[in-house]
Amino acid sequence: MQTSRLEFQDRIEYIPLEHLRYAPGRIRQRINPEDVRSLARTFQTFGMMQPLEVNERDEVILGTRRLAAAKLVGLSPIPVIRRSVPELYSLEKQLVSDLHTRHLTILERAHAFQNLLELTGMSKYALAKYLSLSSNLICRTLAILKANPTTIALMEEGKISQRTVTSVLYRLKDKSKEDWLIGKIIREKLTVRQAEQLVAEINDTAILAKHFMRHVRSFRTSVTHFQEKQHAVGLEPRERALMEKELSLTLDLLRETRKGIASPAREG
Question: Tens place of pLDDT for every residue, the chain, 268 residues?
């Protein structure tokens, strides 16, 4: 059976630390400093037990964390296995390794999937089968690549998670609403589940109307229950004044909402 996974005989070489460098097209761009420090402590005690994999240019195909830890403690020379392999093998090797260890961010995984699609010419569904992943996971992950520059900047600043952006953009039909939607999620500190519900309301006005009516009915029920209790207890003047103020604000909001429902939404 034909496959792009190639078989090699392993021969370990030892290369000076300063000769090794990270591959420019590596999948994992960020490495957890604590992981590196933990690995460095292990190297100080036991040395590097597992060789790195490098290409003919001494660029690391597999073992970016190990290389970072070796640099931290000055370990040299470094055991490596040299691979004279195509870009596809290098990318696949990194991706499969990191998928199993869960070290990749969603954005890094999405770029890796996209590169594999371009290198192999596979469809998303064929790639999912090839990597033994669900096609839904592939499609959801790739959705993060549709993020506009503003959303990408917000992710980099840590104001919104990659998981939330992925889930939102995978579902959002009208991409022109991305800035408004992401801004609302950040301002109101919505969970992923709440963000998904918001997208559903934006995509389908029937869902929006259904949720609105459910909340209005709940509010009406609460007011009815209050009226029943009000007859049984007396309210202090201060309490009455506070409640009248809140009711006045609520009535103003309801009038505005009713006016908005009666008027068709403006385009643009």
Answer: 333 443 445 678 898 999 998 877 666 667 778 878 888 888 888 788 888 888 888 888 778 888 889 999 999 999 988 877 665 566 666 666 666 555 678 888 888 888 778 777 788 998 888 778 889 999 999 999 999 999 999 998 999 999 999 999 999 999 999 999 999 999 999 999 999 999 999 999 899 889 888 888 998 888 888 877 877 777 788 888 888 888 888 888 888 888 887 776 554 4
Let me know: does 124 contact 135? Beta carbons within 8 Å: yes
- Write down all domains in the chain, each with its CATH number in brackets: 12-86 (3.90.1530.30), 171-232 (no CATH)
pTM of the model: 0.58
Place of tokens 């998670």: 161
Going from the C-alpha of 60 to that of each of 105, 135, 180, 260, the distances in angstroms are 19, 30, 41, 60
